[in-house]
Amino acid sequence: MRVGFLGAGRIGVFHAEALAALPAVDEVLIGDADPHRAAAAAGKIGGRARAAASVDEVFAPGAVDAVAIATSTSTHEELIVRAARAGLPAYCEKPVALGLEATLGALREVRRAGTTLQMGFQRRFDAGYTRARQLVRDGSLGTVHTVRALTSDAAPPPAEYIPTSGGLYRDCLIHDFDVIRWVTGREAASVYAVGANRGADFFREAGDVDTAAVVLTLDDGTLATATATRYNGAGYDVRMEVAGTRDQVGVGLDAQMPMTSAEPNGPGVPEHPYQTFLDRFNDAYRAELATFVEVAAGRQQNPCAGEEALAALLVAEAAELSRAEGRAVTLDEIHDRVAALGGLD
């Protein structure tokens, strides 16, 4: 299989290297808005990777059998649509697009074309989250009543990234919203969100927050919290706790968890705490991309279609509205907005 890879930034190089290492992949054709950056990425990876002269070359008829997208968020919609119109199965890092209307438009194109779009929610491929989901589904935890999720960046992204990121709820917490849905098998019924600015002014200037807390009431009455911050000096921390009437389970509680116990006999400072998302989810990303190759080849069903990304985005939209208006927002309100925009039909 020949895979076109779009985006030669940090995560792009990692993903392209992971694809090039798969036995089922014969070639990875790397395209980027900057051809020199594409060439540098291909040179670094070597082997089955080569650089395209332009993004257009990747979409040339017969050039590739599938496309993977890890470009800046603002370009996702256009590239998803191009892949659909070219009849190519596509993988895309979240989100589909920056806004609800653009997301719906891109997904309509995929539906019309009848192609496959697998979205990049790598936590679904992490061993801990997978185990938690299994324990919920097989009843080991009893009746689930509480879920706690958190995402903490070790350091904030560059200031220029924030205005086009979609904000903390859509860019960061959307992973927590997705994995809460995936682990529990439930949908959010209402959302109450607050946010704060505890660091650099560029978050506030972009209308964003650097720290947030969200309370979700799921459709079966389960209560879930999701918190996030751009400032966690201890390292990159992503965890989840799922509590039920019989037992509770924690995800991310390992030797690299960037937290020190305050208890006299508790664990001390981890020797090698996670510093980036690539450290924390290395294996999950590789499993996700290996799955995409199988999906693109028609040997496996799509584990995370574009509609799944839309469902997580609806929660993020509710959180953003809740923060802005200082009230709980029902998902019915957001579904009404989707209907007013024509839905997916």
Automatic annotation (TrEMBL):
What keywords does the record list, in alphabetical order? Oxidoreductase
Q: Which GO terms describe its molecular function?
A: nucleotide binding; oxidoreductase activity
Domain of life assignment: Bacteria
Looking at the record, the residues that make up the Gfo/Idh/MocA-like oxidoreductase N-terminal domain are 1-121
> Which one Pfam family would you cite for this protein?
GFO_IDH_MocA
- InterPro entries assigned to the protein according to its UniProt record, in alphabetical order: Gfo/Idh/MocA-like_OxRdtase_N (IPR000683), GFO_IDH_MocA-like_dom (IPR055170), NAD(P)-bd_dom_sf (IPR036291)
User: Which positions fall inside the GFO/IDH/MocA-like oxidoreductase domain?
Assistant: 129-246
The family classification in the record reads: Belongs to the Gfo/Idh/MocA family.
The record, for PANTHER family, names:
BINDING ROSSMANN FOLD OXIDOREDUCTASE, PUTATIVE (AFU_ORTHOLOGUE AFUA_2G10240)-RELATED, NAD(P)-BINDING ROSSMANN-FOLD SUPERFAMILY PROTEIN-RELATED
Name under which the protein is recorded: Dehydrogenase
Organism this protein belongs to: Mangrovactinospora gilvigrisea
